[in-house]
Amino acid sequence: MKPGFKGFRRPDGRIGTRNHVLVVPTVICSSVVAERIAAATPEVGTALPHLAGCGQLGPDMHVTHDTLAAYCGHANVGAVLVVALGCEQVVALTLAEAARRHGKLVDIIAIQTEGGTVRATEKGIRIARAFADKLAKVERDWCDASELVLSLKCGGSDYTSGLASNPTLGRVTDRLVALGGAAVLGEIAEIMGAEHLLASRATRAGTATKLIQIITRVETEARALGLDIRGTQPSPGNIRGGLTTIEEKSLGATHKGGELAPLEDVVAYAAPIERKGLTVMDTPGLDVESVTGMVGGGAQVVVFTTGLGTPTGNPVAPVIKVTGNARTARQMADNIDLDVSGIMDDSETLETAADRLFDEVLAVASGKLTAAERLGHREFAIHRRNPTI
Amino acid sequence: MKPVLVISERDNVATALQVLDPGQTLSLAGATLAVLEAVPSGHKIAIRAIHAGEEVVKYGSPIGLATSEIAAGAHVHTHNLASTRGRGDLGSPAIAAEPRLAEPPDPRNGGQP
After folding, report:
1. What are phi and psi of B86, to 5 degrees?
2. CATH assignment of B1-103?
3. What are the residues whose beta carbons fall under 8 Å from the beta carbon of A79, sequence distance 6 or more?
4. Which option is the CATH number for A20-135: 1.10.1060, 3.40.1000, 1.10.287, 3.40.50?
5. Structure pTM?
6. Low-confidence ranges of chain A (pLDDT < 70)
7. Is beta strand B31-34 parallel, antiparallel or unpaired with respect to B25-28?
8. Hey, are the CB atoms on A228 and B59 less than 8 Å from each other?
9. Nearest chain A Cα to B55, which residue?
10. Residues in Cβ contact with A209 at an 8 Å cutoff, skipping those fewer than 6 apart
11. Residue B45 is inside which H or E element, if any?
12. Interface predicted TM-score of the whole assembly (ipTM), two decimals
């Protein structure tokens, strides 16, 4: 039998690994009401509390809107409740339209129209509960592994990341892509110094050029500010862990993208991942903003490698934590899903670690809860580039 | 467990997989290397002399430039190795490295990648 998983077939043809009722605040002002509504349907409810939605101009406003809209249409979401305030910039109707276009159950409430926090929360809970009951009737169906879009992430990296967990994930990436699946790599600053390894695998001339342009933009921005990227890259924890320069961190980090998978596309933050194979997304290195963007692009599962350990999850996608550091596997056991530290002491090969990780990805895609899900980690942060006006 | 790991044949540094003590002798691909100073686990040790301004190479690719003379067996970290990327503080783009499109030349191979 071909490798596969049990997923939710959506009306738009995409496959979900989760079946969430998503409660989306249009603006920071409706975030608390949205969170309370989601908390009243704990089995499937999840909210997208955020700090934006008003006082933003131009590209920043579009990124906020497009990211929220992307989550409204996400394959891991079965129903969407948009919670507006009433006077904000982000338009509730267009978010609801994004959800409808992808065949989701959808409704809108506005706090100003409902008459305050209490009435809006009450009404929202009733709507979300009804959605949850309908979604409970939807069953999982056997799906081919090629339907997966895997988000590749590393954070809290140390020397074991480049030697054990990232190469393990790289083998899983190569395997999934060979089966016809897709993977997405973000964090442009952490490709800096390793761009040649990805550029040489680009299938179209324009893709390599686009990658180089984005990396050049990040370096130019640092130059324009007169700032040294070493203030943040590598992070102080990375440096304690033995990583000295961004080039070194990038070469280790880029292992996540495998060695064989062709680089098929380079896309903007939270933009749809439309091609099989490997895609690079223009995200910052900050973990939560990066995962938020890659899931917005359509990833239904995230694999997050870590050396020092980190709790980050996501509101709609399961995040699988993998470490090659034996001490972290013990010390932060409640945050870690897979321990591949055997690679470091030669008690396990990269191949068998990759077998275990590939199996874990399919199990999680089929509904197995990750450590981040069990602990309620649902971090969400939309990338912002400009000041609030 | 091996005390150190050399990832690529091009590398001039190795990664310590355990704490290395001064005076300790390591055997690397037939040659021996005397550890000059304490190297924490996960940190890098020079496996040959690296001159100031020379590229430090790990994973077969440059990870920055040596900022001082580095002896074989010395600890290599922020005190003697610096990045060339994203360095707005260096001012001129001519000083900072440009994105790389191909494998760096291999000195052991007549400068070919």
Report:
1. 65, 35
2. 2.30.130.110
3. A20, A21, A22, A104, A105, A106, A128, A131, A132, A134, A135
4. 3.40.50
5. 0.91
6. 230-231
7. antiparallel
8. no
9. A247
10. none
11. strand B44-46
12. 0.82
